[in-house]
Write a structure and sequence with these properties.
heterodimer; A: alpha/beta; 7 strands; 38% helix; 27% strand; globular; B: 138 residues; alpha+beta; 3 helices; 46% helix
Protein backbone atom coordinates (compact mmCIF):
# COMPACT_ATOMS: atom_id res chain seq x y z
CA UNK A 1 0.00 0.00 0.00
CA UNK A 2 1.50 3.36 -1.06
CA UNK A 3 1.24 6.43 1.15
CA UNK A 4 1.51 9.99 -0.02
CA UNK A 5 1.86 13.05 2.21
CA UNK A 6 0.42 16.10 0.51
CA UNK A 7 0.67 19.64 1.86
CA UNK A 8 -1.97 22.30 1.41
CA UNK A 9 -0.31 25.69 1.61
CA UNK A 10 -1.22 29.24 0.73
CA UNK A 11 -2.09 32.57 2.29
CA UNK A 12 -4.51 33.06 5.17
CA UNK A 13 -8.07 32.82 3.85
CA UNK A 14 -7.23 30.81 0.72
CA UNK A 15 -9.37 27.85 1.84
CA UNK A 16 -6.81 25.27 2.99
CA UNK A 17 -8.83 24.06 6.00
CA UNK A 18 -12.00 23.96 3.90
CA UNK A 19 -10.29 22.04 1.08
CA UNK A 20 -9.04 19.35 3.48
CA UNK A 21 -12.47 19.20 5.07
CA UNK A 22 -13.98 18.69 1.59
CA UNK A 23 -11.59 15.90 0.67
CA UNK A 24 -11.09 13.96 3.87
CA UNK A 25 -12.77 10.63 4.49
CA UNK A 26 -12.04 10.83 8.20
CA UNK A 27 -13.04 13.49 10.71
CA UNK A 28 -10.39 16.15 10.18
CA UNK A 29 -8.04 17.35 12.87
CA UNK A 30 -8.05 21.12 13.07
CA UNK A 31 -6.00 23.50 15.18
CA UNK A 32 -7.79 26.79 14.86
CA UNK A 33 -7.58 29.77 17.16
CA UNK A 34 -9.67 32.93 17.24
CA UNK A 35 -8.23 35.31 14.69
CA UNK A 36 -7.09 38.61 16.19
CA UNK A 37 -5.42 39.76 12.97
CA UNK A 38 -8.48 41.04 11.12
CA UNK A 39 -6.42 43.38 8.97
CA UNK A 40 -4.77 40.43 7.21
CA UNK A 41 -7.93 38.36 6.79
CA UNK A 42 -11.45 39.08 7.95
CA UNK A 43 -12.30 35.63 9.27
CA UNK A 44 -13.21 34.34 12.70
CA UNK A 45 -10.54 31.68 13.11
CA UNK A 46 -7.11 30.85 11.78
CA UNK A 47 -5.02 27.67 11.68
CA UNK A 48 -2.07 27.87 14.09
CA UNK A 49 -0.49 24.41 13.77
CA UNK A 50 -1.95 22.12 11.13
CA UNK A 51 -5.02 20.56 9.60
CA UNK A 52 -5.08 16.85 8.94
CA UNK A 53 -7.26 14.60 6.84
CA UNK A 54 -7.03 11.34 4.90
CA UNK A 55 -8.35 10.07 1.61
CA UNK A 56 -7.99 6.71 -0.11
CA UNK A 57 -7.14 6.83 -3.79
CA UNK A 58 -7.62 3.78 -6.03
CA UNK A 59 -7.85 0.47 -4.20
CA UNK A 60 -5.53 1.11 -1.30
CA UNK A 61 -3.32 4.17 -1.71
CA UNK A 62 -3.68 6.33 1.36
CA UNK A 63 -3.14 10.05 0.95
CA UNK A 64 -2.42 12.05 4.08
CA UNK A 65 -3.50 15.66 3.73
CA UNK A 66 -1.74 18.26 5.87
CA UNK A 67 -2.74 21.91 5.87
CA UNK A 68 -0.11 24.38 7.03
CA UNK A 69 -0.84 27.73 8.71
CA UNK A 70 -1.06 30.56 6.20
CA UNK A 71 0.74 33.16 8.28
CA UNK A 72 4.50 33.46 8.02
CA UNK A 73 4.99 33.65 11.77
CA UNK A 74 4.13 29.95 11.85
CA UNK A 75 6.78 29.07 9.27
CA UNK A 76 8.45 26.63 11.67
CA UNK A 77 5.41 24.43 10.99
CA UNK A 78 6.09 24.79 7.27
CA UNK A 79 9.58 23.36 7.77
CA UNK A 80 8.36 20.49 9.96
CA UNK A 81 5.52 19.46 7.66
CA UNK A 82 7.47 19.92 4.43
CA UNK A 83 9.97 17.28 5.50
CA UNK A 84 7.68 14.32 4.82
CA UNK A 85 5.66 15.79 1.97
CA UNK A 86 5.92 14.62 -1.64
CA UNK A 87 3.51 17.09 -3.15
CA UNK A 88 1.87 20.45 -2.73
CA UNK A 89 -1.57 21.87 -3.41
CA UNK A 90 -0.94 25.61 -3.37
CA UNK A 91 -4.16 27.51 -2.83
CA UNK A 92 -4.34 31.22 -3.60
CA UNK A 93 -7.49 33.28 -3.10
CA UNK A 94 -8.12 35.51 -6.08
CA UNK A 95 -9.53 38.24 -3.85
CA UNK A 96 -6.28 38.64 -1.88
CA UNK A 97 -4.61 42.06 -1.99
CA UNK A 98 -1.88 40.79 -4.34
CA UNK A 99 -2.57 37.15 -5.22
CA UNK A 100 0.16 36.90 -7.86
CA UNK A 101 2.79 38.02 -5.33
CA UNK A 102 1.34 35.55 -2.80
CA UNK A 103 1.76 32.82 -5.43
CA UNK A 104 5.38 33.83 -5.98
CA UNK A 105 6.11 33.96 -2.23
CA UNK A 106 4.65 30.53 -1.55
CA UNK A 107 6.35 28.99 -4.59
CA UNK A 108 9.58 30.41 -3.23
CA UNK A 109 8.96 28.62 0.09
CA UNK A 110 7.46 25.38 -1.18
CA UNK A 111 8.49 25.16 -4.85
CA UNK A 112 11.18 22.55 -4.09
CA UNK A 113 8.36 20.06 -3.48
CA UNK A 114 8.09 19.93 -7.26
CA UNK A 115 11.36 17.99 -7.34
CA UNK A 116 10.10 15.60 -4.64
CA UNK A 117 6.86 14.85 -6.45
CA UNK A 118 4.74 17.62 -7.77
CA UNK A 119 2.90 20.90 -7.29
CA UNK A 120 -0.53 22.08 -8.40
CA UNK A 121 -1.89 25.59 -8.00
CA UNK A 122 -5.53 26.03 -7.12
CA UNK A 123 -7.02 29.52 -7.46
CA UNK A 124 -9.99 29.98 -5.13
CA UNK A 125 -12.61 32.70 -4.76
CA UNK A 126 -12.41 33.59 -8.45
CA UNK A 127 -16.18 34.02 -8.27
CA UNK A 128 -15.62 36.87 -5.78
CA UNK A 129 -12.76 38.54 -7.68
CA UNK A 130 -12.63 37.92 -11.43
CA UNK A 131 -9.06 39.13 -11.87
CA UNK A 132 -6.23 38.29 -12.08
CA UNK A 133 -6.86 35.76 -14.82
CA UNK A 134 -5.56 32.21 -14.60
CA UNK A 135 -3.05 33.00 -17.41
CA UNK A 136 -1.34 35.51 -15.13
CA UNK A 137 -0.80 32.78 -12.54
CA UNK A 138 0.66 30.48 -15.21
CA UNK A 139 2.94 33.29 -16.39
CA UNK A 140 4.23 33.92 -12.84
CA UNK A 141 4.86 30.19 -12.36
CA UNK A 142 6.93 30.13 -15.57
CA UNK A 143 8.88 33.11 -14.24
CA UNK A 144 9.50 31.70 -10.74
CA UNK A 145 10.00 28.03 -11.65
CA UNK A 146 10.94 27.95 -15.34
CA UNK A 147 10.64 24.63 -17.13
CA UNK A 148 8.45 23.00 -14.45
CA UNK A 149 5.08 21.51 -15.28
CA UNK A 150 2.70 22.98 -12.69
CA UNK A 151 -1.01 22.80 -13.51
CA UNK A 152 -3.23 25.71 -12.50
CA UNK A 153 -6.92 25.21 -11.67
CA UNK A 154 -9.69 27.45 -10.50
CA UNK A 155 -11.73 25.70 -7.84
CA UNK A 156 -14.11 26.17 -4.96
CA UNK A 157 -12.48 24.76 -1.83
CA UNK A 158 -15.92 23.68 -0.59
CA UNK A 159 -16.51 21.55 -3.68
CA UNK A 160 -15.30 17.98 -3.17
CA UNK A 161 -15.30 17.09 -6.87
CA UNK A 162 -13.27 20.15 -7.86
CA UNK A 163 -10.76 19.61 -5.07
CA UNK A 164 -10.52 15.94 -5.97
CA UNK A 165 -9.67 16.88 -9.55
CA UNK A 166 -6.79 19.08 -8.27
CA UNK A 167 -5.58 16.33 -5.96
CA UNK A 168 -5.74 13.58 -8.59
CA UNK A 169 -3.81 15.75 -11.01
CA UNK A 170 -1.12 16.17 -8.35
CA UNK A 171 -1.00 12.46 -7.57
CA UNK A 172 -0.64 11.67 -11.28
CA UNK A 173 2.33 14.06 -11.38
CA UNK A 174 3.86 12.49 -8.28
CA UNK A 175 3.55 8.99 -9.69
CA UNK A 176 5.00 10.10 -13.02
CA UNK A 177 7.97 11.72 -11.22
CA UNK A 178 8.52 8.49 -9.25
CA UNK A 179 8.39 6.40 -12.44
CA UNK A 180 10.87 8.66 -14.22
CA UNK A 181 13.22 8.53 -11.21
CA UNK A 182 12.98 4.72 -11.10
CA UNK A 183 13.70 4.34 -14.81
CA UNK A 184 16.66 6.72 -14.54
CA UNK A 185 18.01 4.63 -11.65
CA UNK A 186 17.66 1.45 -13.69
CA UNK A 187 19.41 3.06 -16.64
CA UNK A 188 22.33 4.30 -14.49
CA UNK B 1 -14.36 32.90 26.29
CA UNK B 2 -14.27 36.63 25.87
CA UNK B 3 -14.73 36.87 22.10
CA UNK B 4 -15.86 40.49 22.09
CA UNK B 5 -12.71 41.83 23.78
CA UNK B 6 -10.18 43.78 21.70
CA UNK B 7 -7.03 41.90 20.66
CA UNK B 8 -4.98 41.44 23.81
CA UNK B 9 -1.69 42.14 22.05
CA UNK B 10 -2.95 45.57 21.00
CA UNK B 11 -4.56 46.55 24.29
CA UNK B 12 -2.17 48.70 26.39
CA UNK B 13 -3.99 47.86 29.64
CA UNK B 14 -3.72 44.13 29.07
CA UNK B 15 -0.08 44.47 28.00
CA UNK B 16 0.64 46.40 31.22
CA UNK B 17 -1.15 43.78 33.33
CA UNK B 18 0.78 40.98 31.62
CA UNK B 19 4.09 42.76 32.26
CA UNK B 20 3.20 43.17 35.93
CA UNK B 21 2.23 39.52 36.33
CA UNK B 22 5.45 38.37 34.68
CA UNK B 23 7.54 40.57 37.00
CA UNK B 24 5.76 38.98 39.95
CA UNK B 25 6.37 35.51 38.52
CA UNK B 26 10.08 36.20 38.24
CA UNK B 27 10.31 37.53 41.80
CA UNK B 28 8.49 34.50 43.12
CA UNK B 29 10.47 31.92 41.16
CA UNK B 30 14.13 32.66 40.43
CA UNK B 31 14.53 29.60 38.24
CA UNK B 32 12.36 31.33 35.63
CA UNK B 33 14.41 31.91 32.50
CA UNK B 34 11.78 33.21 30.16
CA UNK B 35 8.03 33.71 30.05
CA UNK B 36 5.53 35.13 27.63
CA UNK B 37 1.83 35.80 27.49
CA UNK B 38 0.46 35.22 24.00
CA UNK B 39 -2.87 35.32 22.24
CA UNK B 40 -4.42 32.03 21.12
CA UNK B 41 -3.41 32.86 17.56
CA UNK B 42 0.23 33.40 18.46
CA UNK B 43 0.79 37.11 19.03
CA UNK B 44 3.07 38.12 21.88
CA UNK B 45 1.28 40.20 24.53
CA UNK B 46 4.21 40.68 26.95
CA UNK B 47 7.39 38.78 27.76
CA UNK B 48 10.00 38.44 30.45
CA UNK B 49 13.52 37.68 29.20
CA UNK B 50 14.45 36.92 25.59
CA UNK B 51 14.84 39.31 22.69
CA UNK B 52 12.09 40.62 20.43
CA UNK B 53 12.69 38.04 17.71
CA UNK B 54 12.73 35.14 20.16
CA UNK B 55 9.63 36.44 21.93
CA UNK B 56 7.65 36.55 18.69
CA UNK B 57 8.86 33.10 17.66
CA UNK B 58 8.11 31.50 21.03
CA UNK B 59 4.64 33.06 20.99
CA UNK B 60 3.92 31.45 17.60
CA UNK B 61 5.32 28.08 18.63
CA UNK B 62 3.48 28.07 21.96
CA UNK B 63 0.25 28.87 20.13
CA UNK B 64 0.78 25.86 17.84
CA UNK B 65 1.63 23.63 20.82
CA UNK B 66 -1.48 24.75 22.67
CA UNK B 67 -3.67 24.06 19.65
CA UNK B 68 -2.09 20.63 19.13
CA UNK B 69 -2.62 19.82 22.82
CA UNK B 70 -6.25 20.88 22.54
CA UNK B 71 -6.63 18.77 19.37
CA UNK B 72 -5.19 15.65 21.05
CA UNK B 73 -7.39 16.11 24.13
CA UNK B 74 -10.43 16.59 21.91
CA UNK B 75 -9.61 13.55 19.80
CA UNK B 76 -9.14 11.37 22.88
CA UNK B 77 -12.30 12.85 24.41
CA UNK B 78 -10.55 13.61 27.72
CA UNK B 79 -11.93 17.13 28.16
CA UNK B 80 -10.13 20.43 27.71
CA UNK B 81 -6.31 20.46 27.83
CA UNK B 82 -5.28 22.06 31.13
CA UNK B 83 -1.55 22.54 30.65
CA UNK B 84 1.37 21.34 28.54
CA UNK B 85 4.82 20.43 29.83
CA UNK B 86 7.91 20.02 27.66
CA UNK B 87 10.72 18.46 29.69
CA UNK B 88 14.23 18.78 28.27
CA UNK B 89 17.75 18.07 29.54
CA UNK B 90 18.45 21.49 31.05
CA UNK B 91 15.00 22.76 31.82
CA UNK B 92 11.38 22.65 30.93
CA UNK B 93 8.57 24.70 29.50
CA UNK B 94 5.11 24.85 31.00
CA UNK B 95 2.24 26.48 29.23
CA UNK B 96 -1.25 27.09 30.48
CA UNK B 97 -4.31 28.94 29.27
CA UNK B 98 -5.35 32.07 31.17
CA UNK B 99 -8.80 31.22 32.57
CA UNK B 100 -11.69 32.64 30.53
CA UNK B 101 -9.35 34.48 28.14
CA UNK B 102 -8.06 33.82 24.62
CA UNK B 103 -4.58 33.93 26.05
CA UNK B 104 -1.84 31.50 27.07
CA UNK B 105 1.13 31.77 29.44
CA UNK B 106 4.31 29.92 28.40
CA UNK B 107 7.20 29.82 30.88
CA UNK B 108 10.66 28.30 30.69
CA UNK B 109 12.34 27.18 33.95
CA UNK B 110 15.82 25.79 34.49
CA UNK B 111 16.26 22.20 35.66
CA UNK B 112 16.86 23.26 39.29
CA UNK B 113 13.15 23.89 39.76
CA UNK B 114 10.71 21.13 40.65
CA UNK B 115 7.95 20.60 38.14
CA UNK B 116 5.39 20.82 40.93
CA UNK B 117 6.49 24.28 42.06
CA UNK B 118 6.85 25.56 38.50
CA UNK B 119 3.39 24.30 37.66
CA UNK B 120 1.84 25.94 40.70
CA UNK B 121 3.49 29.33 40.04
CA UNK B 122 2.38 29.23 36.41
CA UNK B 123 -1.15 28.43 37.54
CA UNK B 124 -1.03 31.29 40.03
CA UNK B 125 0.28 33.72 37.39
CA UNK B 126 -2.41 32.67 34.91
CA UNK B 127 -5.18 33.19 37.47
CA UNK B 128 -3.66 36.52 38.58
CA UNK B 129 -3.72 37.63 34.96
CA UNK B 130 -7.38 36.65 34.67
CA UNK B 131 -8.22 38.54 37.88
CA UNK B 132 -6.38 41.68 36.71
CA UNK B 133 -8.14 41.69 33.34
CA UNK B 134 -11.50 41.34 35.11
CA UNK B 135 -10.65 44.24 37.46
CA UNK B 136 -9.62 46.37 34.46
CA UNK B 137 -12.87 45.53 32.68
CA UNK B 138 -15.03 46.30 35.76
Amino acid sequence: MAEHVILFAGPMGAGKTTAIESLSEIETIRTEANNTDRETADKDTTTVALDYGEITVGDEDKVRLYGVPGQRRFNFMWTILKERAVGLVLLVNNDAADPIQELADFLDEFGDLHEKGGVVVCVTRSDVATSPHIDQYAEKIREVLPGRMIPVFTADARNTDQMRTCLMSLIANIEMTAMIAASQERAA
Amino acid sequence: MNNAAPSAHKDPHIIACAGEVLEGLNEFCRSLRYATFLTDDGFEVASFGGDDKQNRRVASMASSMQALGDAVAKDLRIGAAEYIIIAAETGYVIQMRVPDQLMVLAAHFDAAETVGKALSVVRLAASNMCAMIRREAA
